[in-house]
Amino acid sequence: MAASSHADHFFQTTSTLEETERKARKAANALGEPTKFSTKLLALVIDHHLQAHDDVVYVAQSGGDVNGLTLSSPEQRTVLRGPKAPVTCLAIHAATDQSTGARVKTVYAGSWDKSIWSFPVSDQTHADKTAALRPRSFPAHSDFVKSLAIAVTADKESIIISGGAGGDIGFWSLSGDRLAVVKANSRAVECITVDPFAPSEAPAVFFGTSQRNIFSTVLPAKTQLSSKSVVLSPLPAAHATSVYKLHFDDDGDLWTASADKTCKRLVRDSGWKEDTVLQHPDFVKDVVTQDRYGLVLTACRDEEIRVWDKASSQLRHVFTGHFEEVTGLALSGDDLVSVSIDATLRRWSVEPKALQKAIEAAKGADAAEAKADSGPQLTAEEEAELRALMEGEEADILDSMAADKQDAEVPLQSSEGQCAAVRTMDLTLRNVLANSQSPYLRAHKDNPVAWQEWTVESLALAKTHQRLIFLSIGYNACHWCHVMERESFCSTEVAELLNSSFIPIKLDRELRPDLDDIYMNFVTATTGSGGWPLNVFLTPDLEPVFGGTYWPGPSASTTLHRVSTNPDESPTTFLDILRKMESVWTHQRDRCLRSAAEVTKQLRWFAEEGTHSHTDPVVRDASSEDSPEPLDLDLLDDALSHFVSQFDPVNGGFSPSAGSPKFTTPVILTFLLRIGASVAYPSTHTRFGFPNPVPGILGKDSCAQAASMALKTLRVLSRSGLRDHLGHGFHRYSVTADWNLPHFEKMLYDNAQLLSCYSDAWALRRDPEILGTIFSLVEYFTSPSSSILSPDGVWYASEDADSIPNFGSASSTTSPIDGQGTEKKEGAYYVWSHKRFTDILPEPDAAILAAHFGVLPDGNIPAALDIHDEFLNQNVLHIAATPSTLAKQFQLPLSEIVAKIKSGKATLSNYRRTQRVPPDVDNKVILSCNALAITALARAANTLATIDSSRSQRCIAAATRALNFIKTRMYDSSTGKLSRIYEPDSHPAWDRSASQAFLDDYAYLTTALLSVYDLTFDRSLITWAENLHPGGYFQAQHADDQLFRLKPGTDNSLPSANGVIANNLFYLGAHVPDQEAQYTRQARAILDAFGVEIIQHPFLYVSMLSAVVLDQVGVRRLIVPRTLDDVAVSRYKGFGRTVEKGDVDKN
Questions:
Q1: What is the average pLDDT across 901-929?
Q2: How many structural domains is the chain composed of?
Q3: Rg, C-alpha atoms of the chain
Q4: Cα–Cα distance measured from residue 161 to residue 230, given in angstroms and rounded to the nearest whole number
Q5: 482 three-class SS
Q6: Are residues 894 and 1037 located together in one domain of the fold?
């Protein structure tokens, strides 16, 4: 793991280094008389009204400042400070002070902190300067403020109008009082502009959105302005995607700038129909018109500013100077003013003589460059072809997929009229997975598909033979991976097409999480959802073209309609997709490559998360010891508010929408438990909660609400069908809101995190039900009979969702699961028919157990969720009735009911264990998952120390044994490097050196070492943790088989590795005082690097927020007497504390 804490080393790959060098060369130019700023410029506004001799321009900076400067003297600036987050938009209001007659203006700024800031500025022309007064702010949106405008209502009152990133539009008085809020759509309101030609009695405002819509509204009188009185009227659809800017010209027509790479004129007199389209090579970010000279001026994301003839739509000139995206344009007389995220403001004269001079200078430079180019020249015919190609519409491969199947496909033609598709030599592939290191891949060794592994050799085949790569990513426990294998990868028809036209590659996501994340980002971005199997078509350069998850195969008799909302409609199958992709690659290859390159560019931009400081991202010296400005603890309140809005008050848990799968979200639950434990209640150990000032900021009621949400969820989970009530552990997620229809795989990382959560929950409320779940999970991790515990004392990766149905005698009410069979079925090991369940148990125990577990004669799985009768008459066991309820129902003593439930569970468990075929276990040992288990056992050991010392010691022993295994089998002390995977079966193909560890392996293992140290006080664990400490914060080391490296910051099913590292660094600093300053700087560098994203969406970064708390309050270093026993020591441990044994001064 490369170690670097420098900010400029956060994101360095071959492609980004090349791009950085190009920009560095271009940055040296002085075109446009650049005025440089310290941070990126995101917006500008020009004040034409108050300065007596010159225009004043205000620019919005990503560092949070607003700078005002006079264009004639740009070195003289007024800095308006207030926001601590990026400022995204600006507006100016001018008024006359009635008492003094002086003209006073106010600069309004919208920020990522979700507020609108106002800066009163007096125009002191006699002093030839501007003077800023005290700023104010008011909360405006639930997400960051995207756009601002000042408008005048029908009764001549000035108001503020703002657009939010969440699609809401706010109407405010100048002092910040809310007048109205309306929702345009679910996407950002990108721009707001006032119609200068609307009559004063009916003022009109126009809005452009990220959902391509343009709306208008007529403002009533201010006294009549309300959410009901604002009516948004859509204009005719003009664009395919985001509308970034709107501008009215002197004719009253509307010019638009869009992410669909066009600028358009919408004509007022024709009902806003378009009559002019200006094509661009990239997103158009802004547009203004210089009507005096008949010019249209556009800013493009490709760094260039284009000058168009308004009458003919011909491109006249390109101003080249900026070396990053141009974010805004404005006119000041004959000068065009531009700002960019390259942190410069530039000016360009569009006066006719000056413009002609610039055009001639550009021609001269082009001629000199052409003369210096000694490479081969294009023929006239080739020039024409290239021009046609460059000017053509950018085709998206998804449009090709959706095209009518009857459409004729015309192959691309070369100048000789022959098909331009590359013809390559014949290639015969064979399936090579028999010797794979991965059990998941070896399971596909008998497929007729000629699977290759992700290797240098297989990737070279794609380049040599110019084939698309079909990449299929999955893991051993994945149910839908097994379904797709049966339906498609075992099909000879599918195999023939894959083998003859593609390079089919199978990948285990647990071996290469870096590649899985890269291509999951693509599929999620292009389809709106993700999951496994993850299937992506790649160019030979590894750029994604098209992808998805499960696609039904030719034999998908029971699953075809799952992908279609219309049961009578024949859905697209995997075979259809293969044929279409083969055709697209053969006949439309250039379109395919262009689309893939554009998508990759977007993904690379998205991957820069965590590469920009929220304080001073351009000029901050990475080697400086100055700490960046800390993030605000109010972010915890923002995150909590989001979780409140997503909480299911009936069933617990969090879900973005009704009907979507529900996951256990242990990262969120841990965060909520920390908040809940920060306020003292009876039986609450507040030392495990966030310390002051967090409870003071959030308030006692909010802390109680956080505790309630977490505890409600954990209690419901304990009783639900997601828990294995006859064994141990939890399944991965539920299809239903009540958690009672799971996908049945069990993942090590889920159960490890849940053990930590339940241990934290016990500290918050001493609930016997919580404690019982802790006991069960401890058994899952420590019992010699546990299916996931290896003989070496480490843990296997997962248990499969599918298994072979039991081989008992088939009953008269059999189903696809209940009875004999050789084909694996989902949940076969766990579900029960009523007859089989009651036949095993004696009466009346059977009736009691059936009522307890919700077992019904017709099954308890809703028919609407089982339309193909895969779970016909089956029951998922869950706690439907408590023992006290059953005691009343069956008129028996409570003790007898409890005894019968225990006896019945033992009988059912024994039957299942001896008569059913258990699911397969993926016996890979994954370091990161084992580290989570070690941390969980250490946490449980501390919780149980005062309750059950025997179990506590068993947890400590298991955690210590696993650490010793990792140190001897998965760690190279000479290099400090870890191996991610160990395979206990010692497969002949196993190569430890090839199993590179990833960021989460290092991060989670460091946490595990610190956690076990808290139990054993073995100082060697701290030394090991220091040696492991990664400083580069990338997910993986650089490799040629990656499009780019990700620097992950958000939490998902696992805590953010960078968030975990930030927390670890603060704790390491407390353990190693002489290195505390260095570790603290490095931790703060992580928080600073992700600061912009954390401010925007704090609920995605709760691991980071824990580190924000540590940054603000520090880690307490406690020293207890050496003679203190372990139980006594455990009472000192908690969040934000380190405990050491030492000599204590009694005075």
A1: 95
A2: 4
A3: 32
A4: 12
A5: helix
A6: no
Res. 539: pLDDT tops 80? yes
pLDDT of residue 862: 86
Other Cβ atoms closer than 10 A to 699: 12
Q: Which two tokens stand for residue 682?
A: 């009876």
Both structure tokens of 279: 């094509």
Q: What is the rounded distance in angstroms from the CA atom of residue 536 to the CA atom of residue 481?
A: 14
Q: Which tens digit of pLDDT belongs to each residue from 936-971?
A: 999 999 999 989 999 999 999 999 999 999 999 999
67, 75 Cβ separation under 8 angstroms: no
Hey, how many other C-beta atoms are within 10 angstroms of the C-beta on 691?
A: 20
Type of residue numbered 255: W
Instruction: Determine the Cα–Cα distance for residues 987 and 998; give it in Å rounded to an integer.
Output: 22
Predicted local distance difference test score (pLDDT) of residue 611: 45
Q: Judge if 443 and 588 occupy the same domain.
A: yes
Distance (Å, rounded) from C-alpha 75 to C-alpha 1074? Answer: 44
Say which range, 476-490, 667-681, 1042-1056, has the weakest mean pLDDT: 1042-1056
Shared-domain flag, residues 534 and 476: yes
Asked if residue 691 belongs to a domain, the reply is no
Query: Of 1023, 918, 931, 1032, which Cα lies nearest the Cα of 979?
Result: 931
Q: Which pLDDT score is estimated for 17?
A: 52
pLDDT at 555: 66
pLDDT for residue 381 = 46
Integer Cα distance of 1062 and 1069 in angstroms: 11
Whether residue 210 lies inside any domain: the answer is no
CA distance 598 to 606: 13
Residues 456 and 596 in one domain: yes
Question: For residue 819, is it left (φ>0), alpha (ψ between -120 and 50) or beta?
Answer: left
Does residue 15 fall inside a structural domain?
Answer: yes
Domain stop point among 562, 581, 606: 606
Sign of the C-alpha dihedral computed for residues 460, 463, 467 and 472 taken in this order: positive
pTM, entire model? 0.67
16: amino acid identity, one letter = T
Residues 6+ apart with CB under 8 A from 878: 719, 720, 721, 723, 725, 739, 740, 853, 854
Secondary structure (3-state) at 1030: coil
CA atoms within 13 A on the CB side of 810: 11
1035, 1137: one domain:
no
What phi and psi, each to the nearest 5 degrees, are found at residue 483?
A: -60, -45
Mean pLDDT over the full length of the chain: 84
Residue for token pair 């560095």: 24
Nearest to 1093, CA basis, from 1109, 1105, 1081? 1105
User: Which runs of E-coded beta strand occur in 528-687?
Assistant: 534-538, 544-548, 662-663
Contacts of residue 851, defined as CB under 8 A and 6 or more positions apart, other chains included, come to: 880, 881, 886, 889, 890
Q: What value does the mean pLDDT take over residues 788-814? A: 76
Sheet holding 284-290, edge to edge: 284-290, 295-300, 305-309, 315-319
Range of the domain at 839: 825-918
Q: Is 1136 in the same domain as 1073?
A: no
Predicted pLDDT of residue 125: 36
How far is the C-alpha of 794 from the C-alpha of 797, rounded, in Å? Answer: 10
Report the largest interatomic distance among the alpha carbons of the chain, rounded to a whole angstrom: 101
Which ranges of 623-699 would DSSP assign to H, the alpha helix?
Answer: 634-646, 666-676, 694-698
* Residue at which a domain ends, from 567, 585, 606: 606
| Residues 116, 162 contacting (CB under 8 angstroms) | yes
> Cα 876 vs. chain centroid, distance in angstroms?
32
Please tell me the distance from the alpha carbon of residue 308 to that of residue 316, in angstroms, as a whole number.
Answer: 5
Asked if 1035 and 598 touch (Cβ cutoff 8 Å), the reply is: no
Alpha carbon 52 to chain centroid, angstroms:
49
Task: List, as own/partner pairs, every contact residues 527-532 make where C-beta atoms lie below 8 angstroms and the sequence separation is at least 24, other chains included.
Answer: 531/480, 532/473, 532/474, 532/475, 532/478, 532/480, 532/481
Alpha-carbon distance 53 to 128, whole Å? 9
51-85 per-position pLDDT tens digit: 444 688 999 998 888 999 888 877 777 888 888 88
